[in-house]
Amino acid sequence: MAMRKGSNVPVPASAVRVELGWRTGPGVPDVDASALLLASGKVRSDADFVFYNQPAHSSGAVRHEGKRTAGDTVTDTLAVDLARVEPAIETVVLAASADGGGFGRVPGLCIRVLDASGGAEIARFDSEDATVETAFVLGELYRRQGAWKFRAVGQGYSSGLEGLATDFGISVDEPQHTSAAPAAPVPHSVPLPPPPPAGAAAPLPPPPATAPPAPAHTPPGAAPAPVSLSKVTLTKEAPSVSLAKQGGTSGAMRVNLNWQVRKQFKGWGHKLGKAIAMHGDLDLDLGALFELADGSKGVVQALGNTFGSLHQPPFIHLDADDRTGARASGENLTINLDHISAFRRILVFVTIYEGARSFANLNATVTLQPQHGAPIDFSLDECTVPSPVCALALITNTGGDLVVQREARYLVPERGVSPQRTLDHAYGWGMNWTPGRK
């Protein structure tokens, strides 16, 4: 349902997905969705601000689920469980901020409210009058006589996310800085001597899945730290970042993989003497090679059902195997930063399980999100070699601090060599590999 500014509609669903959408292209600023939970027009504390650096509200009612790309269209999604919104909260403000320019340079900006259970569109508001604004309140969910409604707002701010946040009572520790666009990853072709053919890592007995640790609470009497709006972009010129310097010294660090849901060309077949194209669902797998301080090594991945564990070695856990990319949250690998001393190094990687023969022309993104630090983003759409495996980031324990090194390295296996064994050879892990399946 298309709406005009200032109009409102009932929201009959108990849970909704709020999609902020726009068209990307050269010179178009990056855009981020955020939400503020208000009581009497203000947040109760900085914890009522949900955005890329604070992706989940403590009540579980609002979550920032991240970005997805389909062609030239990008969506950034918020999940709102209206049934879990605390009684004191009257309004959930739905906002957007632009990084790298004003919203006048962002084509096709819109907000959609969808029924979370079936995906039916409840409301849509297209913003068409933006100029120099760098933050926008596009809409709000609000209570009226025990029921929820959505209002199209369209209020702009020239002071960016910092100005918007402080206007609603958020304390910000630093001004928002515009970050440069990430440099295109440099593809690498790595020829390797062909070892004996192998498939996947030898499976380890998967321990029970465990949930990420609860967010740390501020000690009684201590002033809460102001919210940081910083974002980290690793480039060829600045390829590494210290998690300690970004505040990522404890809690859970989520590594998220999301990709475009589409049919991918698989190859050629023949029917009645004619060549035909064959396509299949794209299935990418997120994983990690690990080496612990005690010398033990292994892999966390869906292949072989080696999902790891968060609260016992290796303190790394893969939440599930997303076979199609259809889940809004994609695939998530969680690293327990409360056990930094246990890690020696971690190599985060992505492989193509089926649906494509290379990362070329695939729209996939990876975000490293520390629970108490700035997000680190990678894009996987610049591969120019026939590579089915990409080393994303190497995380190394350096003097008790985890340092994230940008890799963005596309590897080309020799014939008969698995992607995992190719990674092992390239980074000197020295593991034994046996065939596996999922």
Automatic annotation (TrEMBL):
It comes from the Bacteria. Residues 2-168 form the TerD domain. InterPro entries: Stress/Tellurium_Resist (IPR051324), Tellurite_resistance_TerA (IPR017115), TerD (IPR003325). Residues 184-223 have a biased composition (Pro residues). Coiled coil: none annotated. Residues 175-227 are annotated as: Disordered. Belongs to the CAPAB/TerDEXZ family. PANTHER family: CAMP-BINDING PROTEIN 1-RELATED, GENERAL STRESS PROTEIN 16U. This is TerD family protein. It comes from Streptomyces cuspidosporus.
